[in-house]
């Protein structure tokens, strides 16, 4: 497969950077990574395969990710080459992508699941809530893509890898959003995309109190706990990072255990990468039973305690 001469990479979340770099290595001869942080962050980028690091300085609590768009745009423009930039599909990543799209007059495609460069840059992404896959061809000299989790396998870190590091002066944007306060986000950080086992809960769980039972079950299984979109975005019982679905996390575990989840296509798109799927739902006609390897028809709040007792035994 032919490769682009250079791929630009950035992630506002450190845990997503290795996958962005892995995509860059697969698609480009050179991988240029923007880094905001410490020397350890620079070395980490090299260890995962970056050939060049453009260092934007230490993290600044008074700056938000989008404030760096002018700096990145000028750096990319100075390279004077047709190129592709890959970003993590976070809220900040997509906001940065939109700004860079304007400043670089670049085509932008979000939540991409597959990239082809054989006949120009083509990007596939979910459409119609996951019912179809759309393919876009980006004809602008610079293409910008936010890449869905699970699209590329992360390379093992090699601390012997090194490359060229360049410090880049910050370019002050013409207008900014002033950051007046930062608060620690409630809840623990989780990366469901890397989990080997995942337990997912949906509306069938009934109440927020029942999540404690699901958490106990997932702990006994050695699994991470995820959820359907309503649990995270409507009820707000769990962090959005745990939402599984077409615009959430795309799973690739060995086991996915869905509890009280109906199985609408928007959710199943994020779960179909699982090797084995189990499900519990009281509705025997629930769509999820069309996708599972093993299913139980019954009340999830009766079956969870029974499973916990069996695992403890």
From TrEMBL:
MF terms in GO: electron transfer activity; flavin adenine dinucleotide binding
Obligatory cofactor(s): FAD
GO BP, sorted A to Z: carnitine metabolic process; fatty acid beta-oxidation using acyl-CoA dehydrogenase
Keywords: Electron transport, FAD, Flavoprotein, Transport
SUPFAM superfamilies reported for this sequence: Adenine nucleotide alpha hydrolases-like (SSF52402), DHS-like NAD/FAD-binding domain (SSF52467)
Superkingdom, taxonomy of origin: Bacteria
Residues the entry annotates as binding FAD: 228-229, 260-267, 281
Cofactor binding: number and manner: Binds 1 FAD per dimer.
Pfam families from the UniProt entry: ETF, ETF_alpha
InterPro entries the UniProt entry points to: DHS-like_NAD/FAD-binding_dom, ETF_a/b_N, ETF_a/FixB, ETF_asu_C, FixB, Rossmann-like_a/b/a_fold
Keyword Flavoprotein in annotation: yes
Family: Belongs to the ETF alpha-subunit/FixB family.
Entry-linked PANTHER family: ELECTRON TRANSFER FLAVOPROTEIN ALPHA (PTHR43153), PROTEIN FIXB-RELATED (PTHR43153:SF5)
Identification of the protein by name: Electron transfer flavoprotein alpha subunit
């Amino acid at each position: 497969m032919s490769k682009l001469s250079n791929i630009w990479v950035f992630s506002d979340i450190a845990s997503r950077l290795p996958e962005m770099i892995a995509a860059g290595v697969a698609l480009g001869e050179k991988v240029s990574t923007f880094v905001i942080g410490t020397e350890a962050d620079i070395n980490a980028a090299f260890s995962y395969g970056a050939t060049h690091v453009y260092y934007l300085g230490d993290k600044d609590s008074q700056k938000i990710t989008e404030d760096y768009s002018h700096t990145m745009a000028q750096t990319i423009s100075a390279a004077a080459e047709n190129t592709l930039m890959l970003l993590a599909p976070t809220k900040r990543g997509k906001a940065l992508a939109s700004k860079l799209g304007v400043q670089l007059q670049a085509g932008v495609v979000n939540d991409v699941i597959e990239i082809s460069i054989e006949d120009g840059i083509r990007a596939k992404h979910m459409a119609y809530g996951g019912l179809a896959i759309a393919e876009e061809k980006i004809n602008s000299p610079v293409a910008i893509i936010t890449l869905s989790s699970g699209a590329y396998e992360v390379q093992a870190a090699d601390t012997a890898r090194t490359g060229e590091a360049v410090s880049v002066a910050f370019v002050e944007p013409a207008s900014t959003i002033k950051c007046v306060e930062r608060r620690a986000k409630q809840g623990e950080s989780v990366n469901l995309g890397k989990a080997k086992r995942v337990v997912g809960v949906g509306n069938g769980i009934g109440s927020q109190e029942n999540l404690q039972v699901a958490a106990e079950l997932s702990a006994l299984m050695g699994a991470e706990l995820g959820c359907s979109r309503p649990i995270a975005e409507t009820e707000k019982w769990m962090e959005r990072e745990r939402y599984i679905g077409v615009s959430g996390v795309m799973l690739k575990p060995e086991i996915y255990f869905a509890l009280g989840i109906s199985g609408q296509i928007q959710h199943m798109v994020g779960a179909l990468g699982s090797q084995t799927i189990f499900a519990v739902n009281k509705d025997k006609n629930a769509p999820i039973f069309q996708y599972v390897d093993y299913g139980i028809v019954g009340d999830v709040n009766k079956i969870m305690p029974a499973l916990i007792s069996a695992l403890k035994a």
